Amino acid sequence: MFGRDASQNLAIVPIPPQDLNDAAVKSTWVDMRNFEHATLYVMVGDTAGATFAVTFQEAKDASGTGAQTLAYTNAKTSGQKLVINTVVGTFSVGETVTGGTSNLTAEVYEVSASYLLVRNLTGGTTWTSGETLTGGTSAATAKISGTGQNEDILLPTYTAPSSTITVPAVTFKTYCIEIDVEDLTTEDGYTHMRACLTDPGGATIAGGLILLTKPVWRGIPMPSSMGTQKIAATQS
Questions:
Q1: Phi, psi of 191, rounded to the nearest 5 degrees
Q2: Domain ends where: 152, 177, 193?
Q3: What domain count does the chain have?
Q4: pLDDT of residue 233
Q5: What does pTM read for this prediction?
Q6: Is there a contact between 224 and 10 (Cβ–Cβ < 8 Å)?
Q7: Full domain range(s) for residue 43
Q8: Mean pLDDT for each consecutive 10-residue tract of the chain (236 residues)?
Q9: DSSP string for 10-29
Q10: Could you tell me if 72 and 14 lie in one domain?
């Protein structure tokens, strides 16, 4: 039965885990003609020494003919829940909060009376239980109960990107970008796209994959979106 196993009707293009400090990393060119949607997942490992940017390019074929920037707006980043108490003032969505003991920083996505949903920005994800959290814009303060939890959530970016997101220097986090085939300039013959991770200028272990979904027809297996291209650590 078609579609009984979801893995039969999708395709996966890996970006091998590696130290991005070696050079900027680009995936192979991905043919989007058999799929309507692509999701890029980028995962940062046990070393995150510096930030790096994630962009996309589109081209007319697997050789990169006419390569140009592919804009996107739909991105999600790893989040975390901070349980708080002894709150003074009101935290603001989008502001940066800082831990008084851990010195960790995070961007606020959602404000509740008893917790904050945040995106970790610097230092890590293990906060000091009982430390004071201070809002950089609101100047609100609160005590953190615990060291942070729910590290598996993905939060939409506070401000929609135009074509780039910056991945912070925080270990063991995941980032997600959605691309629809309509985002490509198909009217001008652009049928391929690839993901690009910039050189952070410091040791940063990362990898990822491009998941192709919403096939335009059902195949077991689906036709390759890579063709004869080889998966390598870096692409020209």
A1: -120, -10
A2: 152
A3: 2
A4: 76
A5: 0.88
A6: no
A7: 6-76+158-215
A8: 56 90 90 94 91 96 95 94 98 97 97 96 95 98 97 90 93 95 95 95 93 83 79 74
A9: -EEEEEEEEEGGGS-EEPPP
A10: yes
